[in-house]
């Protein structure tokens, strides 16, 4: 039992199960249907943000192009299913494959550009993509956007809105598990090393070129999955959606949620997207200040919680122990602190 | 222990030079290291010691000269043909003058990075956390625990590396080198920042490492007592140039060395 509770997979699955109940709650009238849609979209954004977290959080590489890659996948999937009338599965492969190849090319750029320059380079790529979204009308529908239907699985199962939501939740849980697998071991250590000390990483045999490409590859695959789910859930794709603001939102998610934390990415996505959609935008007076609220949140987190929400619970328990420690006259504090930090590491490992 | 009588060489540095702008950081430097010996490189600050380490490990490409490594099987490799990340595959591993750890990771994870090049884990296998991957991870962890126990820091293994005192961090760096099954360990000022007791322990450890892990050790160190105590041979350099090579005794009594190096920094013991 303890093993099951400790197992991170079960955390992801539990989260998935909770999310799966939302449509029932909506049917029962406990929450609005539109809330389910917002949460579905939030999950979609979580996936792209998790990709950015692998890139930035683990590998220390910045990208301001997430929205561009997500949009590219959305358009490809819409085009392949609608215009070419090919199966959904084919669309998924094309919509993940093409952006990922492009993402890996950008990874090659990352060897030439460091830090802020890499940010600018990725932004340029995303802006070029946006020009394509606006101007290559036969492919994207230009300013009027591209339409896409709900997924048809294996050529026969036409999903409705709620079933598509289920699909999104299942994909999220799968991705959480796979990314957990990838980041908790060999690859995760290599990416961490690359971020933490490039010199040590190289001395230990980490091929920086290879791992930068892998990091960009993972980030784009996730952005692409996110784009595919988006276009078939929301039903359309406008060029204005895939702008710098969206890429910055993904950055904000990580800052607020926590670097290198899967759950943190989910929570951050909730705060940055769902909160503003559900609580700020319905109130006209607040709708316009949404970007301001996000900006303030980012500043607060960078200043006071640089490790994001994922770490706040550790800080709280640290604080509690320290208080307890003061009352303890038997030198227990050190041991307690030690245990705590151990637990913390384990948590960080699994989250 | 004296070096083996057959005097097999492990590392040959011949006429290596490298300049930064007009400054010749390493100037026609040659020395050779025998297998299984502890070799010290000494010289005043800025003499080019770290630079030569960087040339050996290919962080810098030497302007001229040659650097050859002969592994335990007798295979000779021109290190200048390799990239930085390929050096460890030859069995050469290093530490850094300013400890280079992944601060946010646990000590265990930091040590495990040392096994990066021995772990052959295909991405797909990792993605699905296949049995072979789990086995590899578990075995590596066990190996890391043994190394940490050897260095007396096993109880700290789950703590965050960056929050540890300097002495522990330096041990973690050494543990990481041992994790890579090294033939040649290159230590850049391993005693810097350590107190007297820690330095004494370090001297013992370095000798132990050579015996237990059957390695050759090349080190830069300012602590003369440590160098004289543990090294089989020493090379003294100044302004990138070699001034003397010999046993600790020979180096101690060498007038050139005394003039160039020890004269300014204090007396030799
Ligand atoms: N990357 C570099 N760029 C410019 N100068 C360097 C570089 N690396 C080392 N140097 C210079 O080379 C000389 C030797 O430095 P170093 O090898 O670090 O000395 P030390 O013997 O103290 O380890 C110094 O003058 C240093 O400034
Ligand atoms: Mg130095």
From TrEMBL, chain A:
Protein name per the record: Amino acid/amide ABC transporter membrane protein 2, HAAT family (TC 3.A.1.4.-)
CDD domains: TM_PBP1_LivM_like
GO MF assignments: branched-chain amino acid transmembrane transporter activity
Chief place of localization: membrane
Organism: Alkalibacterium putridalgicola
UniProt keywords, alphabetically: Cell membrane, Membrane, Transmembrane, Transmembrane helix
Domain of life: Bacteria
Transmembrane segments: 38-56, 61-78, 90-111, 132-153, 165-183, 213-231, 251-273, 285-305
Location in or out of the cell: Cell membrane
Membrane topology category: Multi-pass membrane protein
From TrEMBL, chain B:
InterPro entries: AAA+_ATPase (IPR003593), ABC_AA/LPS_Transport (IPR051120), ABC_transporter-like_ATP-bd (IPR003439), BCA_ABC_TP_C (IPR032823), P-loop_NTPase (IPR027417)
Magnesium found in the keyword field: no
SUPFAM superfamilies: P-loop containing nucleoside triphosphate hydrolases
Sequence ranges assigned to domain ABC transporter in this UniProt record: 11-264
Superkingdom, natural source: Bacteria
PANTHER family: AMINO ACID ABC TRANSPORTER ATP-BINDING PROTEIN, CONSERVED COMPONENT OF ABC TRANSPORTER FOR NATURAL AMINO ACIDS-RELATED
Name of this protein: ABC transporter ATP-binding protein
The organism of origin for this protein: Alkalibacterium putridalgicola
């Amino acid at each position: 039992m303890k093993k099951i509770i400790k197992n991170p997979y079960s955390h992801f699955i539990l989260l998935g199960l909770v999310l799966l109940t939302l449509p029932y709650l909506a049917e029962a009238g406990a929450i609005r249907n539109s809330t389910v849609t917002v949460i579905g979209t939030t999950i979609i954004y979580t996936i792209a943000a998790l990709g950015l977290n692998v890139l930035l959080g683990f590998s220390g590489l910045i990208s301001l192009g997430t929205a561009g890659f997500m949009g590219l996948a959305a358009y490809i999937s819409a085009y392949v299913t609608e215009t070419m009338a090919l199966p959904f599965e084919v669309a998924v492969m094309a919509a993940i494959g093409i952006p990922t190849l492009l993402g890996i090319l950008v990874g090659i750029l990352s060897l030439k550009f460091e830090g802020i320059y890499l940010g600018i380079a990725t932004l340029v790529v995303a802006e070029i993509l946006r020009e394509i979204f606006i101007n290559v009308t036969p492919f994207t529908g230009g300013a009027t956007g591209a339409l896409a239907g709900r997924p048809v699985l294996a050529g026969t199962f036409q999903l409705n809105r709620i079933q598509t939501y289920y699909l999104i939740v299942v994909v999220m849980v799968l991705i959480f598990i796979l990314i957990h697998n990838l980041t908790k071991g060999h690859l995760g250590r290599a990416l961490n090393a690359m971020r933490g000390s490039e010199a040590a990483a190289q001395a230990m045999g980490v091929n920086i070129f290879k791992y930068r490409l892998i990091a960009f590859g993972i980030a784009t695959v996730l952005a692409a999955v996110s784009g595919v789910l988006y276009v078939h859930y929301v039903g359309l794709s406008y060029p204005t959606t895939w702008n710098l603001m969206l890429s910055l939102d993904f950055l904000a998610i990580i800052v607020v949620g926590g670097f290198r934390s899967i759950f943190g990415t989910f929570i951050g996505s909730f705060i940055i997207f769902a909160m503003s959609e559900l609580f700020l935008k319905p109130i006209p007076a607040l709708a316009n200040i949404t970007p301001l609220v996000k900006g303030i949140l980012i500043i607060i987190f960078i200043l006071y919680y640089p490790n994001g929400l994922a770490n706040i619970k550790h800080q709280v328990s640290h604080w509690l122990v320290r208080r307890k420690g003061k009352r303890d006259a038997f030198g227990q504090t050190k041991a307690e602190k030690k245990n705590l930090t151990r637990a913390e590491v384990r948590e960080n490992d699994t989250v | 222990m004296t070096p083996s009588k057959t005097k097999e060489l492990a590392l040959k540095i011949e006429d290596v030079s490298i300049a930064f702008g007009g400054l010749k950081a390493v100037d026609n430097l040659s020395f050779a290291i025998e297998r299984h010996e502890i070799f010290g490189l000494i010289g005043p600050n800025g003499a080019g010691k770290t630079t030569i380490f960087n040339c050996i490990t290919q962080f810098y490409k030497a302007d001229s000269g040659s650097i050859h490594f002969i592994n335990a099987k007798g295979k000779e490799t021109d290190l200048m043909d390799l990239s930085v990340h390929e050096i460890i595959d030859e069995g050469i591993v290093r530490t850094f003058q300013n400890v280079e750890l992944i601060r946010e990771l646990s000590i265990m994870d930091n040590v495990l990075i040392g096994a990066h090049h021995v772990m052959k884990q295909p991405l797909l296998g990792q993605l699905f956390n296949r049995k072979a991957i789990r086995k590899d991870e578990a075995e590596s962890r066990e190996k890391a625990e043994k190394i940490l126990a050897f260095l007396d820091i096993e109880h700290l293994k789950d703590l965050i590396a960056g929050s540890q005192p300097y002495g522990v961090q330096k041990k973690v760096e050494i543990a990481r080198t041992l994790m890579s099954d090294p033939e040649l360990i290159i230590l850049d000022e391993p005693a810097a920042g350590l107190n007297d007791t820690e330095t004494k322990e370090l001297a013992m450890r370095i000798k132990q490492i050579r015996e237990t892990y059957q390695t050759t050790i090349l080190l830069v160190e300012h602590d003369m007592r440590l160098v004289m105590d543990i090294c089989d041979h020493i090379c003294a350099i100044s302004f990138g140039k070699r001034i003397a090579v010999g046993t600790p005794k020979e180096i101690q009594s060498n007038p050139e060395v005394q003039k160039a190096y020890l004269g300014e920094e204090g007396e030799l013991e």
